[in-house]
Amino acid sequence: MFLGHFAVALAAKKAAPKTPLGILVLAAQFADLLWPILLLLGIEQVRIVPGLLPVSPFDFTSYPISHSLAAELGWGVLLGVAYFVAKRDARSALIVGMLVPTHWVLDLVAHRPDMPIYPGGAKYGLGMWQSLPLTVLVEYGLFAAGIAIYLSCTRAIDRTGNVALWSLLALLAVLYLGSVFGPPPPNVHVLAVSALAIWITLPWAAWADRHRQLR
């Protein structure tokens, strides 16, 4: 899952209107933000197997720190507490903390059985990636819903509020097409380095959100 995680972050703005969109993206995508760092450090592993699945060539052999349910619940608690300490906003802190494990839930739907409950524990997955048409439909459907909810509760206060937001959304939509229909990366190092690019979405989302206000 890729666009679906951003959809959750966009939709969460309605539940946590005071929280910057960049923070919501950080929470919803925390697992994928952490994962390439752990790959580069050799702490987690993945194999690139062209043709493994119609949607993904990645065999996620070990990623218990970034992608197990137990770990994501723990990261969610830490992130939620950190937000509360910084902002003293219990409601928003709760939403931020809850967003982190939504990543596991969405990935459970998409992945084959490689999503661990806890490090070393049983792995699960419903295998949506076995169907390319279904995957694309679900990803873009969730993305469209998330955008609609975000737009229903915010409006641009200047031209930047529209340009920054729509350029980010367009980039994400195009990048997803490239990841699905493009060739697999040549090796794990290139995969990890390219995956680090997701970090740019945090300041970009924050930038767009600063130029928008609640309806």
Per-chain topology:
Layout: H1 3-15, H2 21-28, H3 30-40, E1 45-48, E2 58-62, H4 64-67, H5 69-87, H6 90-110, E3 115-116, E4 123-124, H7 132-153, E5 154-156, H8 159-181, H9 188-195, H10 201-210, E6 212-214
Antiparallel strand pairs: 1-2, 3-4, 5-6
Care to describe what's here?
This protein is mainly alpha-helical. The protein has one domain. 65% of the residues lie in helices and 9% in strands. The protein contains ten helices and six strands. A two-stranded antiparallel sheet has the order 1-2. Strands 3-4 form a two-stranded antiparallel ribbon. The protein has a two-stranded antiparallel sheet with strand order 5-6. A hairpin with a 6-residue loop joins strand 3 and strand 4. Helix 2 runs antiparallel to helix 10, helix 3 packs antiparallel against helix 9 and helix 8 runs antiparallel to helix 10. The protein is globular, with a radius of gyration of 17 Å. The protein starts with a helix and ends with a strand. The model has no long low-confidence stretch (mean pLDDT 97).
List keywords for this structure.
single chain; 215 residues; 65% helix; mainly alpha; two-stranded antiparallel sheet; 10 helices
Task: State the helicity in percent bands.
Answer: 55-70%
Report the uncertain regions.
none
How many strands appear in the DSSP assignment? 6
- How many domain units? 1
Strand fraction: 5-15%
| Helix and strand composition category | mainly alpha
Any idea what the shape is? globular
Secondary-structure element order, N to C: HHHEEHHHEEHEHHHE
- Which strand order does the major sheet show? 1-2
